[in-house]
Design goal:
Helix 2 packs parallel to helix 3, helix 4 packs parallel to helix 6 and helix 8 runs parallel beside helix 9. The chain has 316 residues and is of the alpha/beta class. The N and C termini lie far apart (58 Å). It has an 8-stranded parallel beta barrel with strand order 1-2-3-4-5-6-7-8, surrounded by 7 helices. Strand 6, helix 8 and strand 7 form a beta-alpha-beta unit. The chain has one domain: TIM Barrel (Alpha-Beta Barrel).
Length: 316
């Protein structure tokens, strides 16, 4: 059985690339399987080790995830990697556990209204699905980790503000159900740095021996500011997507996830070790651009380049 500490050691920052799942959930075109493998391989060569590979959803409705099983097997060929996949219902959970993926992610919304709109379940029903998934995972021979992303943890575009106590209560129920890892998601970009810092502090105080993650969207331009607030207040798993791919149907006209490359640069500037070589990572954008030429790509480092000494500086 894989221990949480084997993948997410306490105090060690892990950057998780979610572009292959969250980044592709709303695209008009999607990469071929060979392009996805090149994407993974080149990020691996740059030092990325943690990948969200896709979702277990009906292939006829979500063809961008039809190759999820092949990607799971491909990742096993790369030493030291860790793969996760999203399962939104019992059928998906069963398929995910049987796939051999190392981590299965479920979603629980901090907003009852969003839960019903997004997965057509109440929060109580969603907790029941998590309990079912945990039982499946514990009975599997490879015993994958079960993680839960708490969506709308900082505010909901349907019902408005979400209280910190509400999020903590749901997190406690998930942990009691057997979840290994909790991730707090700013699904529609409600949060500012103080909001993120407050919830992360309260989570750490409530569950002092639990590693936890943060999933941020750059909906209103505060994604990286929120990321550093999370890093400074106990979160050790930070999600980002290559070129800022992604979006949310409940946040129309919004940009996607925080840009993975910019997140790596942020960590570099803050002397946070990630093991990722940013110049190599930037080259992976070519794969994304080639495979999805009509998709908007974001990224400040890609646009401005890495800081370089000017000629004037060099002559000082």
């Amino acid at each position: 059985m894989t221990a949480v500490s084997d993948i997410y050691p306490a105090g060690q920052i892990v950057l998780r690339e979610v572009g292959l799942r969250d980044g592709l959930q709303m695209v008009k075109t999607h990469p071929s399987t060979s392009d996805k493998k090149e994407w993974i391989r080149r990020e691996y060569d740059a030092g990325v080790r943690c990948f969200e590979l896709g979702s277990f959803l009906p292939a006829h409705r979500y063809p961008q995830f039809a190759d999820i099983l092949e990607l799971i097997e491909f990742l096993k060929e790369l030493p030291g990697t860790h793969g996760s996949a999203l399962a939104l219902n019992r059928k998906g959970g069963d398929a995910a556990v049987n796939s051999g993926v190392a981590e299965v992610t479920a979603v629980l919304s901090a907003s009852e209204a969003h839960s019903k709109a997004n997965i057509n379940r109440t929060q109580d029903q969603a907790i029941g699905e998590i309990e079912f998934l945990v039982d499946l995972a514990r009975s599997a021979s490879h015993k994958p980790l079960v993680s839960v992303g708490i969506a709308m943890a900082f505010g909901c575009s349907i019902s408005g503000d979400v209280k910190v106590d509400t999020v903590l209560s749901l997190a406690e129920r998930c942990l009691n159900a057997g979840a290994d890892v909790i991730s707090l998601a700013d699904t529609v970009g409600y949060a500012g740095p103080t909001d993120v810092a407050t919830l992360c502090k309260e989570f750490q105080n409530a569950f002092p021996n639990r590693v936890f993650g943060i999933h941020l969207h750059d909906t209103r331009g505060l994604g990286l500011a929120n990321a550093i607030a999370a890093l400074q207040n106990g979160a050790t798993i930070i999600d980002g997507a290559m070129a800022g791919l992604g979006g949310c149907p409940f946040a129309p006209n919004a940009t996607g996830n925080i840009v993975f490359e910019d997140l790596v640069f942020l960590c570099q500037k803050e002397d946070i070790y990630t093991g990722i070589e940013i110049e190599q990572l930037l080259g992976v954008r070519d794969v994304v651009q080639k495979s999805m030429p009509q998709e908007a790509l974001y990224g400040s480092i890609a646009k401005a380049g890495l800081p370089q000494p000017t000629e004037l500086d060099a002559n000082k």
